[in-house]
Specification:
With about 575 residues, the chain is of the alpha/beta class. The chain is globular. InterPro entries: DHS-like_NAD/FAD-binding_dom, Gln-tRNA_amidoTrfase_suB_CS, POXB-like, THDP-binding, Thiamin_PyroP_enz_cen_dom, Thiamin_PyroP_enz_TPP-bd_dom, TPP-bd_CS, TPP_enzyme_TPP-bd.
Length: about 575
C-alpha cells in the first residue's frame, strides 16, 4: 500500500536511528506530526521555541554521534530554527531539519507566512533542498541524511504541507543507504617527513590541540613526550587532552589561563593539531608553524603556515611519531609546565580559596564546588559568556565527562536547550546546564519543557544580574559599561512556579549542600547562585591597548560618579591578574 510523503519520511528517519523530533507543531507540519504519532520507535518532543529545538537536536547528535532531527512549521516557525542550526553546522554535528512550507501553489505569491527556507538555510547547512513532488522524496531524503552524517553538518528538507500529504509512487524503493565505515584520510608521506624533520631540528616545540584530536589522544601524548613539547588546547580540545596530561599548559585565547600563551610564543616550532582556533591575535606571527587537519580548508586560514599536513590526526601521528627522535633536552617543557602550575595556584586558584564568607559569591568558587560535586560522567552544557570562562578554568575533564556549548557560533541561551537534548539522548546520565541569568532568561520557556517531560536536568543559574562578558568587552575598548545590567530576578521562584524544585544560594557556605541535594534529586532541579557581577575574566596575556582601555573606562566611570563601582571591581579582580 502506497504511503504518504510524511509517512515515508518518518520511516526513513526511524531506519536512520532517529528516536525523536524536536519542534513545535503547526498546520503545515501536521502530516509529519501525525505520521510520528502513528509510528513506533519515534516520538515528538514539544519544545517552547524552535531555536531550542535546533539546540536540543545538536546536543543529541553530539553526545550520541548519530543523526538528530528538529522541525519548524512554515514561515516564522522554521525561521526560529536558524540560530541553533548555524551553531550545529559550525560545530559539525549531524542534524536534519524539516522546514515545512506554505502550500506549493501559493509559493511565489507573497502568501501568508511565505518565506523561502530552501534559500534561507543555505549558509547554515551542508545540504538544503525543497521537496516539490512525492517522487523526489525517497532519494532526496536519503541524500539529506548522507550529507548530514558525512560532512558532518546540518541538512535541511523544505516540505510544503500539501506535498507531505501526497502518495509516494515508488513506495518499494529502499528507504536508506547502508552505512559505511568512515574513510581513512592518510596524509602525504612527504608532508609527514617534512614535519618530522622540523620537530627533530627544533629546540623548543609546542603542541596546540583541538577537537580534531578526538580519538587520537594517546598518539598526541606520545608525540608530546618525544618532542618534549608543552601541550596547550582550545576549549573544544580541553575534554580530550587536558586530563592526566603531564605536559598540560592550559588554554589560550579570551578564556585562557596558564602558560599556554607563553609556550606558543616562545617556541621554535608550533604544531597546531586538529584545531581551527579562530583568535589569530593569540597565535604567534613570528614562530614557525605546522598544522595537521583533516579539512584542508582549515590549513593556514588563521595564522602563518610553514608545514601543512592534510589528514586525520590519528593517521598523521601514526606515520609521524616513529620518525621523531626523543629529545633529551627537556628544559623548555619543564619551565612551561612549572609556570603553568604556579599560575594555576596563584592566579586561577586565587578566587577559590578563603572566600567562604565573601558575598556576592565568587563565581569561580561556585564553579569549583559544582565540579567537585558533579558525577564523574556528567554532561555539562555551558552558556556563552562568563560561564564559558568558569567552565574552561574550573570544570575538570577525566575522559568520561562532556562539556558542550556554543563554542564556535557563540550564541547566548544554548545551555538549557542543549541540556534538554542531552537528557533525552542519554536518560541515565547526569546532565547539568550551567546557565547565566542572561542566557536563561532568553529561552526561559524551556523550563516548561523540562517540567513537562520530567527531565532530570539540573539547572545551575549563575545570577550576576549583568552581561559580564559584554561588560568586559566594553572595558577593554575604553567604554564604561552601559546597558549590560538587569533588574534583580529571583529565578528560584520562577522555577518553583513551573513546578521545578528550586533553591537560591546567597552564601558560599551553602553551595556544597545545595549542589549535592539538587544533583542527587530525581527529576529536574534548579539551583540559583547569586554571584559577584564584578568578577571578570582576565586573559592570559594583557596588551598595552587593553590596559589603556581599562584605565580609560575606569576614569570615565569615576568622573561619572561611579567611584564605588570602580573600587568594587578592583577588589573583585586584582588577585586574578596574570603576573
Amino acid at each position: 500500500m502506497a504511503r504518504t510523503v510524511a509517512e515515508h519520511l518518518v520511516d526513513q528517519l526511524v531506519a536512520a536511528g532517529v528516536k525523536r523530533i524536536y519542534g513545535i507543531v503547526g498546520d503545515s507540519l501536521n502530516p509529519v506530526v501525525d505520521a510520528v504519532r502513528r509510528t513506533e520507535g519515534i516520538d515528538w518532543v514539544h519544545v517552547r521555541h524552535e531555536e531550542a529545538a535546533a539546540f536540543a537536536a545538536a546536543a543529541d547528535a553530539e553526545v550520541t554521534g548519530g543523526l538528530a532531527v528538529c522541525a519548524g512549521s512554515c514561515g516564522p516557525g522554521n525561521l526560529h530554527l536558524i540560530n541553533g542550526l548555524y551553531d550545529a553546522n559550525r560545530s559539525g554535528l549531524p542534524v536534519l531539519a524539516i522546514a515545512s512550507h506554505i502550500p506549493s501553489p501559493q509559493i511565489g505569491t507573497k502568501f501568508f507566512q511565505e518565506t523561502h527556507p530552501d534559500r534561507i538555510f543555505n549558509e547554515a547547512s551542508v545540504f538544503s533542498e525543497m521537496i516539490s513532488t512525492a517522487a523526489q522524496l525517497p532519494r532526496v531524503t536519503r541524500s539529506a541524511i548522507q550529507h548530514a552524517l558525512a560532512a558532518p553538518g546540518v541538512a535541511v528538507l523544505t516540505l510544503p504541507g500539501d506535498v507531505a500529504d501526497q502518495r509516494v509512487p515508488d513506495d518499494d524503493a529502499p528507504i536508506l543507504v547502508p552505512g559505511a565505515c568512515p574513510a581513512r584520510v592518510v596524509p602525504n608521506d612527504a608532508d609527514v617527513e617534512a614535519l618530522a624533520t622540523a620537530i627533530n631540528k627544533a629546540k623548543k616545540v609546542t603542541l596546540f590541540v583541538g577537537a580534531g584530536a578526538r580519538g587520537a589522544r594517546d598518539a598526541v601524548l606520545e608525540l608530546a613526550d618525544l618532542a618534549a613539547a608543552p601541550v596547550g588546547h582550545s576549549l573544544r580540545g580541553k575534554e580530550i587532552i587536558q586530563y592526566e596530561n603531564p605536559h598540560d599548559v592550559g588554554m589560550s585565547g579570551l578564556l585562557g589561563y596558564g602558560s599556554c600563551h607563553e609556550a606558543m610564543h616562545d617556541a621554535d616550532l608550533l604544531v597546531l593539531v586538529g584545531t581551527d582556533f579562530p583568535y589569530d591575535s593569540f597565535l604567534p606571527a613570528d614562530v614557525r608553524t605546522a598544522q595537521i587537519d583533516i579539512d584542508a580548508s582549515h590549513l593556514g586560514r588563521r595564522t602563518r603556515l610553514d608545514l601543512p599536513v592534510h589528514g586525520d590526526v590519528g593517521e598523521a601521528l601514526r606515520l609521524l611519531n616513529p620518525l621523531v627522535k626523543r629529545k633529551k633536552d627537556r628544559k623548555f617543557l619543564r619551565a612551561m609546565v612549572d609556570k603553568h602550575a604556579g599560575l594555576m595556584t596563584k592566579v586561577v586558584g586565587a578566587y577559590t580559596r578563603n572566600v567562604e564568607k565573601h558575598t556576592p559569591i565568587h563565581p569561580e568558587y561556585a564553579a569549583v564546588q559544582l565540579d567537585e560535586t558533579a558525577a564523574d560522567d556528567a554532561v555539562f552544557t555551558v552558556d556563552t559568556g562568563m560561564n564559558n570562562v568558569w567552565a574552561a578554568r574550573y570544570l575538570t575533564p577525566n575522559g568520561r565527562r562532556r562539556v558542550i556549548g556554543s563554542f564556535i557560533h557563540g550564541s547566548m541561551a544554548n545551555a538549557l536547550p542543549h541540556a534538554i537534548g542531552a537528557a533525552f539522548a542519554q536518560p541515565g546520565r547526569q546532565v547539568v546546564a550551567l546557565a547565566g541569568d542572561g542566557g536563561l532568561s532568553m529561552l526561559l520557556g524551556e523550563l516548561i519543557t523540562v517540567r513537562t517531560y520530567d527531565l532530570p536536568v539540573k539547572i545551575v543559574v549563575f545570577n550576576n544580574a549583568t552581561l559580564g562578558m559584554v561588560k568586559l568587552e566594553m572595558l577593554v575598548e575604553g567604554l564604561p559599561s552601559y546597558g549590560t545590567d538587569s533588574p534583580p530576578v529571583d529565578y528560584r521562584n520562577i522555577g518553583l512556579a513551573v513546578g521545578i524544585p528550586s533553591v537560591r544560594v546567597e552564601r558560599p557556605r551553602d553551595l556544597r549542600k545545595a549542589f549535592k541535594d539538587g544533583l542527587d534529586r530525581k527529576g529536574p532541579a534548579l539551583i540559583e547562585v547569586v554571584t559577584d557581577p564584578n568578577a571578570l575574566s582576565i586573559p592570559p596575556s594583557i596588551t598595552s591597548g587593553q590596559i589603556r582601555g581599562f584605565a580609560t573606562a575606569m576614569t570615565k566611570q569615576i568622573f561619572g560618579g561611579g567611584m564605588g563601582e570602580v573600587m568594587s571591581m578592583a577588589r573583585s579582580n586584582l588577585r586574578n591578574l596574570p603576573r
